[in-house]
Amino acid sequence: MNIKRIFGSFVPTNPIISNMSNASHTTMYSIEQLQETIEQEIEIRSEKLSKLAPKDLYLPVNYALQMGGKRLRPVLLLMAYNLFEKNVSKVLPAAIAIEVFHNFTLLHDDIMDKAEVRRNRPTVHTRFGDNSAILSGDGMSFLSYQYLMECTSPCLPDVLKLFTQTALEVCEGQQYDMDFETRLDVSEDEYLEMIRLKTAVLLACSLKAGAVLANAPRQQADWLYDFGINLGLAFQLQDDLLDTFGDQDTFGKKIGGDIVANKKTFLLIKALENAGADKKTKLLHWIEKENFCPEEKINAVTTIYNQFNIKELAEKKVDFYFSKAMDILENLETENSRKQPLLQLASKMLTRKH
User: Fold this and answer.
1) DSSP E strands: which ranges in the chain?
2) CA 61, CA 71: separation in Å to the nearest integer?
3) Which pLDDT score, from 0 to 100, does residue 120 have?
4) Which class is domain 15-19+29-350?
5) What ranges make up the beta strands (E) of 152-309?
6) Which of 121, 120, 124, 143 is nearest to 133 (CA)?
7) Cβ(259)–Cβ(297) under 8 Å?
8) How far is residue 75's CA from residue 33's CA, in Å, rounded to a whole number?
9) Strand partners, 118
């Protein structure tokens, strides 16, 4: 990927945030600083949750939150806020709310997909059972609102409206994803709309929420939202690529899961679109086959992908949306130096191997 052209009442409870609150307004915090801050705050929140009853409700919540991850969404919220304001401790509850909500969606996603591994660990429903995972996931969705309400900004109603709309859109995206399971005629445009809803809107919400809480000009907040949409589309398309062509040890989940589950990814849609009659028949054979060896199916479908350069087509689509995101960031009306943390995070997201 070519990125060379781009240039409340809440009291902080961990020392990193306390120190950050006293920093100069010109200071821009690094990805690592913000990730560490979020990890420490999650530990603090988890400790409090572990003391609540009934224990079996909150134990899976803690397990989900402590499975790790890059904390991209809360970092994006803090970075967007930091473009306009220095004291990111004021919006840390909102950042944690976004992360809790995101992990709730992953938890329920894994149940629906019957996934066994997430971030190289057993999924919540595998560890605790489906019923416990469903109920604990429900609890996480409400916890996210509880944490968000800790923010005392006068702009909180606008953020609540944005957050609620985003939550509904994520559910819409998941429903489209489920609907596609029984269809063989899913178009590229339909797929892109599905991943916009399922993945991109939460990244966009994180950025816009940070800007709104900082009382940024409306146009700036809207541009950050659009930046997040395009970044999210590129991110999910990259995820499709990694699921088939990535390395399982670094990707954190089994390679080829989308192929085994007949997921209508960009790769499969383009293969069905480009394949001639003979290859399309072979693809349909594997899609319709109920009893099969997973490794054999993965190898067979991947071979067809390679014959039609599907990997290259997907990489071009990733680059297209990433470039659109970078154009928006470049035009954002703030000093280039203040954009660097966002640029660095976006670049890391789209050059990742896991």
Assistant:
1) 117-118, 121-122
2) 16
3) 83
4) mainly alpha
5) none
6) 124
7) yes
8) 9
9) 121
Q: Could you give the C-alpha distances from 245 to 144, 257, 330, in angstroms and in order? A: 34, 11, 31
Alpha helices in 11-54 (DSSP H): 15-21, 31-49
Q: Determine contact, residues 322/234, Cβ cutoff 8 Å.
A: yes
Q: What are the structure tokens assigned to 217, written together?
A: 């000009």
Residue from 217, 202, 203, 204 nearest 85 by CA: 217
pLDDT, tens digit, for every residue of 51-91? 999 999 999 999 999 998 889 999 999 999 999 998 899 99
pLDDT average, residue stretch 256-274: 94
Cα–Cα distance, 240 to 230 (Å, whole number): 16
Domain regions of the chain by residue span: 15-19+29-350
What's the Cα-to-Cα distance from 101 to each of 96, 152, 350, rounded to whole Å?
Answer: 9, 20, 23
Tokens at 283, concatenated = 């693809």
The residue type at 188: E
Matching residue, tokens 């670094």: 250
Q: What is the pLDDT of residues 334-352, one digit of tens each?
A: 888 889 999 999 988 887 6
pTM exceeds 0.85 for this model: yes
* pLDDT confidence bin for 252, thresholds 50/70/90: low
Burial class (CB in 10 A: 0-12, 13-18, 19+), 213: buried
CA nearest neighbour of 227 among 209, 204, 205: 204
Structure token digits, residue 48: 């409090």
Q: How far apart are CA 209 and CA 236, in angstroms?
A: 21
Question: Is the model's pLDDT at 259 over the cut of 70?
Answer: yes
